[in-house]
Amino acid sequence: MSGLLQMQCLPEEKDIRFFEENGFWVSPKIFSDEQLEKIIARQDRIYRGEFETGREPVCNWLEGVDNPRALRKTDNSHWSDSILRTVATDPTIGTIAAKLMNADVIRLWHDQLLYKPGRGTGKETANVGWHQDFVYWQNCKEPTLVTAWVAFTDVDLSNGCMQAVPRSHKWGLVNVNNFFEQNLEKQQAEMELPDNEVFKPVPLVMKAGQVSFHHALTIHGSGANATDTPRRSMAVHLMTGDTRYRDTPRGRHFNAQILNGNDGDLYEGDAWPVLYP
Ligand SMILES: O=C(O)CCC(=O)C(=O)O
User: Fold this and answer.
1) Helix pair angle (91-101, 13-22), 10° resolution
2) Which atom of ligand 1 is nearest to the CA of 161?
3) Could you give the CA distance from residue 128 to residue 220 in angstroms, rounded to a whole number?
4) Which SUPFAM superfamilies does the entry mention (predicted)?
5) Residue 62: per-residue pLDDT
6) Between 205 and which of 134, 153, 156, 235 could a Cys-Cys bridge form, CB atoms 3.0 to 4.6 Å apart?
7) What's the rounded Cα separation, in Å, for the pair 109 and 157?
């Protein structure tokens, strides 16, 4: 989507050190306003249940059927639409992820199209509770994964931008972890932190077209969209080339089901497109 690799967007050595220390990093603008206009049109098409490729994504929110106040979370929209696929497989995003994770290969794990509606008069249902992505990815042996969160609209605290907790990627899996929890204060109060660490979330304020990156163990979440306009984005969940399948008694992640493999198998093949090199 970004065409030629945008060299000026790549992290410098100091940015890589920042990511290693804090577990997140925000890129300059990667997608132009013109590109975003087309991307947003395709996002709306998905919500109308129109799939360019004929293949349905996983758990799609449907216009006229589902709660208009709810967070829309559609997994693997890249199965369904060629333009959304170019976002999920963007080479600039792949190159940045490789640098931040010090990896030779970056593959797509899965994408997640997100839409946080503007606040209505009803009860808030579109917060994202504090969680670490890796808690949902227990079918991966190690936390060798990173998320690129592509802002389709400007985001700040007024419309529920994502917030990340610095250093939390060094804490292992914490005791409180739930994407769907609406009460973030309660979660924070119940969270047990390692000695000498503090829970101090940082808002990831961005212009449309910028991309934030967070490690699979970084605690993050987001609050209410108190504006009249929706907050739109795509979370592009990525893995390094050495990510392997782990057999667990817990339910298999929908992407692990595609592999149909044995404990220790590499995630590789067409189902997990290569973004880098
Ligand atoms: O969009 C949000 O507020 C949260 C997204 C998220 O949890 C993620 O990208 O991993």
Assistant:
1) 70
2) 3
3) 8
4) Clavaminate synthase-like
5) 85
6) 156
7) 28
Give yes or no for residue 89 CB within 6 A of ligand 1: no
Residue 162 Cβ inside 6 Å of ligand 1? The answer reads yes
| Integer Rg of the chain from CA | 18
Rounded to the nearest angstrom, the gap between the alpha carbon of residue 265 and the centroid of all alpha carbons in its chain is: 24
Asked whether the beta carbons of 42 and 70 are under 8 A apart, the reply is: no
Domain 7-276 is of which CATH architecture?
Answer: Sandwich (2.60)
Q: How far apart are CA 83 and CA 163, in angstroms?
A: 27
Return d(Cα 228, Cα 237) in angstroms, integer. 28
CA distance 99 to 172: 22
146 lines ligand 1 (CB under 6 A): no
For residue 154 the two structure tokens come to: 């400007």
Q: How far apart are CA 230 and CA 227, in angstroms?
A: 8
Per residue in 137-165, pLDDT (tens digit) is 999 999 999 999 999 999 999 999 999 99
Q: Can you list the positions of beta strands (E) in 69-225?
A: 72-75, 106-116, 128-131, 145-151, 162-164, 202-203, 210-215, 220-222
Name the percent of the chain in helix, strand, coil, to the closest 5: 25, 25, 50
Residue 162 CA to ligand 1 centre (angstroms): 6
Q: Residue 13 half-sphere exposure, CB side, CA atoms within 13 Å?
A: 0
pLDDT at 3 over 80: no
Question: Is the pTM for the entire model greater than 0.85?
Answer: yes
Q: Which two tokens stand for residue 211?
A: 């991309």
Sign of the C-alpha dihedral, residues 211, 212, 215, 220?
negative
Of 108, 126, 124, residue with least CA distance to 235: 108
